[in-house]
Design goal:
Blueprint lengths: L9 H6 L13 H11 L28 H16 L4 H7 L12 H9 L5 H7 L10 E9 L3 E4 L12 E4 L14 E4 L4 E2 L4 E3 L7 E3 L10 E3 L6 E3 L4 E5 L4 E5 L10 E6 L2
Antiparallel strand pairs: 1-4, 1-12, 2-3, 4-5, 6-7, 8-9, 10-11
Helix pairs in contact: 2-3
Length: about 270
């Protein structure tokens, strides 16, 4: 939940440990506090009829102590290192350029988590956000690339429903995955996902992002490790169409390099 929309009892906020004093200025505190509430015995309610006035100024009236992107990144990394447990390495697969950033001492945050007797991140995913898979639920993740070096590209479209999946040149080098637009996940139960939504063709040609319904259908896929094809339940193959600049479903063709997909990260 956005930080400006939180409302909670003052004493509960204090008992929970208040804000992380190691964070800088702005950004990430809402996510850190959300994890802490859920994992440490609390819960959050969305009140759809409430009205919150939140005025954004043309510019921040405070100093970010340098590059604001660096400050916000450090806040997110502090959150991940304290709360993500065995999934921390997955976070750094999504954001590899974050892994070696110094975020300061986290001792007091680890002690707070222990004192509050908080649950695991895996518990959070299974019980609070079951639409999001853990690494143990995946066949593969990272850039999904064809034999010709083209990758699935969300262009940020997996942040909202109805957006299309595109095709773009794969990223390499230090900037790889910097904006996460090419980070995809393929689950053991047959879902092909961005970081937020599932791909759904509606059994048409185009593939778009929608809420995961976990009922197969036009959101059901299979990966053949020999042919490296991704096949939908209707028998069509997921295909990179360079001319159209997007990923589509099309009749399967033997030896078509644009129907052969590899993952950056594979899971046994």
């Amino acid at each position: 939940m956005a930080g400006g929309l939180f409302a909670m009892d003052r004493q509960y906020f204090k008992d929970l440990g208040e804000y992380d004093q190691g964070m800088g200025v702005w950004g990430g505190e809402n996510m850190e506090l959300s994890f802490r509430i859920w994992m440490c015995g609390g819960s959050m309610l969305f009140i759809p009829c409430s009205k919150v006035g939140h005025i954004f100024r043309p510019a921040h009236p405070y100093d970010f102590m340098g590059n604001n992107a660096d400050v916000v990144a450090k806040n997110y990394i502090r959150t991940a290192r304290v709360w993500f447990d065995e999934e921390l390495d997955f976070y750094f697969k999504i954001r590899p350029h974050f892994e070696n950033i110094d975020v300061g001492d986290l001792t007091d945050r680890y002690e707070l988590r222990k004192r509050l007797n908080c649950k695991s991140y895996a518990w959070f995913i299974r019980n609070v956000f079951p639409e999001l898979p853990l690494q143990r639920d995946l066949i593969g993740s990272g850039q999904l690339k064809t034999a010709e070096g083209w990758c699935m590209d969300t262009r940020g479209g997996d942040l909202a429903q109805g957006n299309m999946l595109y095709l773009g040149k794969c990223h390499t080098g230090p900037g790889k995955n910097e904006n996460s637009n090419r980070f995809m996940m393929f689950t053991r139960d047959g879902r092909l996902m961005g970081l937020n939504f599932c791909l759904d063709s509606g059994y048409g040609e185009e593939m778009r992002f929608y809420n995961c319904h976990n009922q197969g259908g036009a959101q059901g896929f299979k990966y053949d490790t020999v042919s490296r094809r991704i096949m939908q339940n209707d028998g069509k193959c997921v295909t990179g169409d360079v001319a159209k600049g997007k990923v589509i479903t099309a009749p399967c063709k033997d030896g078509d390099p644009y129907q052969q997909w590899e993952f950056d990260y594979k899971y046994d």
